[in-house]
Amino acid sequence: MNTIKTWILMGLMTVILVLIGRFIGGAGGMLLFLVLSIVMNAIAYWTSGSMAIAMTRSVRVSEAELPEVYDMVRRLTQRAGLPMPEIYVTPSDQPNAFATGRNPAHAKVAVTQGILRALPARELEGVLAHEIGHVRNRDILISSMAATLAGVITYIANILQWGMWFGMGNRDNRDGGGIAELAMVILAPIASMVVQLAISRSREYQADATGAKLVGDGNPLADALEHLESYSRRIPNRVNPATSHLFIVNPLRGQQMVQLFSTHPPTAERIRRLRAMRVHG
After folding, report:
1. Is 131 tagged catalytic?
2. Rounded to whole angstroms, how far apart are CA atoms 237 and 52?
């Protein structure tokens, strides 16, 4: 199923880029952006994990630097039958975490500086189990590609927005002139967000359930989510919006209008489901 979703994502992003090309340069622009989309999809497939790490400014750490985290992740991956992922730290005071990568063999798990200070070991293990759940469920590729492709499209839209001031774009009257230009600038980022919404919500419930089974108890993760939700409302995280769906709780929760474009299911419902679970380690 995730393979099909990945192909659908790549197709949708291709359509969006081709439409942007039509706006910029007509038929020639469509062809140029079609080629660009093929190249970009290929790059995103092979390097999306590394790009997500770069977009969040995360830094790889050694076992000597974070022995407790390494011990937890090693224990969880052994239970899940997965290889050990690379461990990263994200420079943010907001407690949060995410997983990314092309597949389990190239997985990367990142924790923020804030979560290392804020959560007790029991809850931190629950969070890490959730991230290993994403790896085990093999949904890290599509989420990583969404972050990469959405980031690129948003960047292109921003260029177009500035370009409008200098007369850039296809001004054929059949295209509606400035109205078509304005629509493209507005719709391109929204289209990217819609793609993120389509892939993010159900996977969080699944990763919660998988993580609870790996730990043998849903309560540590439920307790962690309660604390993370509270922190996310009080401590800002200046993360690239294109990567917000990667995190275990929405890092942009405190910003205006975020709820209209939420990439996560309600935290209260996630907690309710976890507390209702009956699992055994």
Report:
1. yes
2. 15
